[in-house]
Amino acid sequence: MQDYEDSVAFLGQWGRFQQVVFFLLCSSILPNGFGGFSVVFLTDAPRHHCLVPEVNLTQDWSNAVIPIEVQLSRCSRFRLDVVRNLSAQGLVPGRDVNLTDLEQEGCVDGWSYSRDVYQSTIVSEFDLVCREQWKQPFTSTVFLLGVLVGSFFSGQLSDRFGRKPVFFGTMALQTIFSFFQLFSTSWIVFAILAFINGIGQISNYVAAFVLGNEILTGDVRVLFSSLGVCLGFSIGYMMLPLFAYFLRGWKSLLLAISLPGLLYIPLWWFIPESPRWLLSQGRVEEAESIVRKAAKWNKVQAPLVIFEDYDIHVGLPKLKSNTTAILCLVWFTLSLGYYGLSLNTSQLHANPYISCFLSAAVEVPANISVWLALRYFPRRLSVISILLVGGLSLYFLQLVPESLSELAVALEMVGKFAMTAGTSLNFAYTAELYPTVLRNTATGTCSAFSRVGSSLAPFLSQLSAYFKFLPYIVMGTLAVVSAFAVLFLPESLGRPLPQTIQQMHERERWRAFEPPGELFINTALLTMYIIQYISTMFSTCGFNVIT
User: Residue ranges of the Major facilitator superfamily (MFS) profile domain (predicted)?
Assistant: First the structure.
């Protein structure tokens, strides 16, 4: 059987057809970037305290009715009937009355929310504070559980019914239910819609990623899987704080996030189905028809017969291998670290908009480093090195004195850099290890396992109540363990994408370790290279990082 890339080599790698597919698929990822982390602003809690209704109080008692616990108490006030009586008697708080002796009560009249940063969030809309505060992180978890479900089922649907229908179907799901969230009448309704929105959120990303990997070839495929889709996501992520800054209300922000989805409807007529997938289903004529259209776009002559002696592989074999188990562990680790750091950016800057932008901006050099790694370094070595860089930087956070807060921020950003680079690298690595008949299912299954990590991420910061650096230690430990597990994966650098299950198993059987000394030396050298690259980046931004 002739290899697919050899069969379509006459098209070239960067003709008009490939350019259209490349840029349209990359642009389709933008809504994932600003939609995926919108919960950072939607669920943020404005400053608040108990609402005091209009009653006849003196100015002194109006100022003193809310207890001070370092700052104004968020969940209690002095009993209003007692305060009203004391005010009527002309007593002065703090002079005639000892405030510590007064009885307190909950916020029975609701809360008053500051509008300094936000006009409204779902926290102020549905009073998700005090006893209901647990719903703030749980909203993110519900959304990410939807992402988990979407990752698992969309991969199987895509391998059964095609990349294109699932890609556009899940994009529509994401757009429609983001819009429906505007009309939520309660937190429960909002959470249910967020769950369904999450199903579409990652599903169209995975479908677009696999579709581009199967249509594009050679260096262009590497560029797409490392820089293309990942930069599309990062640019969308950087657009989010811009939207949130000018649209301070949660409903207007959701509207701005959902409407761009309508712009992608015309893409249906420009983005084709994956010829690789069609061939795996025995639909050779349809695959040839797409390639012939591509030849016309590229203004090249197609041969009379494009695909000769192509085997038909209909049906979905079961996904079982040690490779899958190891990849699931690595995906889980990277997702837990990525979302754990992305959802907790408060240390970066007091302004939430700047914090979000900095967290997003660090992804750009991370994705550039992935592109360089995919071009020049073995996949396995790259993944090990980036996991070690991320794990060690998070470990070292506990050693930084409180007086060196800038160094702590820099180390956290190094961890975010590594988790971002590792995630992008793992997408490309996973796609290269699996055959066409399983590629979307494998990517979706690994992505589903990663969403278990991302679903736990909103609660990871709660471990800091026991020990301040415990969340970082957990993430760092998992990163180091995963780095050693990657030693048992096969290498895919310089090899064509496998078309059949047999080709995949042959790679696993032929897997041979590099000599241990050589592997460790190469890993150490690449790790030092990455650290030096990150150090240079932060020095340019004004951080002094010791290396």
Answer: 82-494
Question: Which of the four pLDDT bands, split at 50, 70 and 90, describes residue 309?
Answer: low
512 band by pLDDT with thresholds 50, 70 and 90: very low
How is residue 460 written in tokens? Answer: 């990871």
* CA pair distance 101, 104, nearest whole angstrom: 9
What's the CA gap between 299 and 296, in Å, rounded? 5
Q: Answer whether 358's CB lies under 8 Å from 420's CB.
A: no
β-sheet bridge partners, residue 68? 72
Q: For residue 328, give the H/E element and its range.
A: helix 322-342
Give, in degrees to the nearest 5, the angle at Cα 168 between 166 and 172: 110
Higher pLDDT, 315 or 368: 368
Question: What is the rounded (10 degree) CA torsion for 185, 188, 193, 195?
Answer: 160
Whether 513 has a pLDDT exceeding 50, the answer reads no
- Alpha carbons 504 and 31: distance in angstroms, whole number: 34
Rg of the chain (C-alpha set): 27
Q: Hey, is 104 helix, strand or coil?
A: strand
- Phi, psi angle pair for 422, to nearest 5°: -65, -40
Q: Are strands 68-69 and 71-72 parallel, antiparallel or unpaired?
A: antiparallel
pLDDT digits (tens, 9 = 90+) for 16-58: 999 999 999 999 999 888 888 888 899 888 888 888 887 778 8
Residues of the chain above pLDDT 70, percent: 86
Average pLDDT (161-190) is 92
Token digits of residue 382: 């790259």
Sort 54 into a burial class: Cβ within 10 Å, 0-12 / 13-18 / 19+. Answer: exposed
The whole-angstrom separation of Cα 519 and Cα 487 is: 9
What is the rounded average pLDDT of the residues 117-133? 91
Angstrom distance (rounded) from CA 111 to CA 241: 26
* DSSP code string of 344-413: --TTT-SSHHHHHHHHHHTHHHHHHHHHHHHHHS-HHHHHHHHHHHHHHHHHHGGGS-TT-HHHHHHHHH
- Alpha-carbon span 235 to 212, nearest angstrom: 19
| Tokens 């950003």 -> residue | 413
Averaged pLDDT, 272-279: 89
| Between residues 53 and 535, the one the model is more confident about | 53
Distance CA 74, CA 127 (A): 12
Over residues 126-143, the mean pLDDT reads: 88
